[in-house]
Amino acid sequence: MFNTYTTISGDTWDIIAYKVYDDEMYMDVLIKANLEYKDIYIFPAGVTLVIPEIDLEVSDTLPPWKQGVIADE
Question: Which of 13, 27, 35, 67 is the most buried (most CB within 10 A)?
Answer without folding.
Answer: 13
